[in-house]
Amino acid sequence: MIKKTLLSLTVVALCFNLSYTSVVKALSPETQTIEENKVKYQQLDEGIVSLNTDISKLDGEIAEINAKLEKNNNETTETEVKINLINSQIEEAKKDIDAKQDILNGRLRTMYKSNMTTSMLAYLIDSSNLFEFINRIDSMGRIISLDKQMVTEIKDKQELLIKNANELNEKQEKLKTLRETIEKDLNEVNEKQDKLHSKLDELNSQKAEVASIIEANEEKLISHPLSVVNTDGSTIKQLQDAISTLKSLIPQLNTESVIDKANDGISTGNAKIEEITAANNAANNSNNNDTNSTNNNNNSSENNTNESKKTLTMEATAYTGGTVTAMGFKPVRDPSGISTVSVDPSVIPLGSKVFIPGYGYAIASDTGGDIKGNRIDLYLNSHEECISFGRQSVTVNIVAYPGEW
After folding, report:
1. What distance in Å separates the CA atoms of residue 109 and residue 128, rounded to the nearest whole number?
2. pTM of the predicted model, to two decimals?
3. Are 316 and 392 in contact (CB under 8 A)?
4. Using CA atoms, how far apart are residues 96 and 314, in angstroms rounded to an integer?
5. Are 325 and 331 in contact (CB under 8 A)?
6. Around 179, how many Cα atoms within 13 Å sit in the side-chain half-sphere?
7. Hey, which residues does 247 pair with through a beta bridge?
């Protein structure tokens, strides 16, 4: 199981690296096509999903091994306690055997020196009467019985000592095997953790590389409304349009730094509107004509903003899902803001702002294999909505080209 998982991880990583490297080698924005970008994003997304799946499997296996190691450590501790107990019992048995052996040896030496058999017969014959003779026989029998019992106990102790010694050897062998298993498991865990960290580093590196492309596209996307906000001569209407655009684009952004710039632009724009409004109110008290002139300029700006650069009649379908568009943005459906549509870049340049009656404003930020020529794909939030939409003829008004909004 472990080897299969590691092999699977290695194969996936190698396949992904080969395909990914072939796409990423030429990352210069001026030479890399939008289609190559989208292929790279799709490969990266699939690679991330595959790596995350393998990482999750490794995490599960590591957790199992850690649990096994903990169990083995507990068993090792218990075994060592038992070994210490057996050693203690063996030492006590040795002392007991030695003490009894000393007593028995002393008695045997006494018997040898005094010719115990002759002494015992003399001891019996020396009895003064039959009663004493019987008592002496009984006493001698008890002494012999005690000696015999002592010999038996010594023999039993010796057998117990041998048995405990054998058990100790078995315990030591089991402990050795247990330690070998633990060391093997530890090595496997360390190898898996190394591979896991390596894959994570690789994943983070790939994310950072793609994030730089996404960040550049997002910077370009918000550059026009930010330039309007940062220009001193912008009118209230122009500032309001820029703020509205920034608010609509934020849900599609992935990069935190770009999101922060968009939010800062919104704050700056609102502050400028307050300044211009205050200045206009002050001027209104002394000269109503200036205010009328300003209003006329704003109205003229609004009319120019709403004019279409180009109007197309296109065949529309709908799609859903996905995590990133060809430009690296989040695909969204926002009826009250700016949604996502997929186009043929040769017909509608990517980054253009369009208006579709019944659908609303959208940014042309995605492409598709079937979206060629007079075709457009509208992003919706569910598969059911896409089926319901079907295939329709729609009017597409190009409101602004890239860099104009």
Report:
1. 29
2. 0.51
3. yes
4. 105
5. yes
6. 9
7. none
Record the tokens describing residue 103, joined without a space.
């007593």
User: For the segment 155-197, what is each residue's pLDDT rounded down to a tens digit?
Assistant: 787 787 778 778 877 877 887 787 788 778 778 877 877 887 7
The mean per-residue pLDDT over the stretch 81-89 comes to: 76
Write out the residue range of the structural domain in which residue 62 sits: 2-215
List C-alpha distances in Å: 300 to 279, 306, 318, 354, 405.
Answer: 20, 10, 36, 21, 17
What is the spatial distance between Cα 181 and Cα 199, in angstroms, rounded to a whole number?
Answer: 27
The answer to whether residues 312 and 207 belong to one domain is no
Phi/psi for 320 (5° steps) reads -150, 175
Binning pLDDT at 50, 70 and 90, where does residue 307 land? confident
Instruction: Please check whether residues 103 and 197 belong to one and the same domain.
Output: yes
The answer to the question of residue 220 being in a domain is no
Q: Give the C-alpha separation, 276 to 270, whole Å.
A: 10
Q: Output DSSP code: residue 286.
A: T
CB-side neighbour CA atoms (13 Å) of 240: 11
Residues 309, 401 contacting (CB under 8 angstroms): yes
Among the ranges given (5-14, 222-231, 349-358), the one the predictor scored with the smallest mean pLDDT: 5-14
The 10s digit of each residue's pLDDT in 213-262 is 888 888 988 999 999 999 988 999 999 999 999 999 999 888 899 999 99
Name the DSSP letter for residue 251.
G
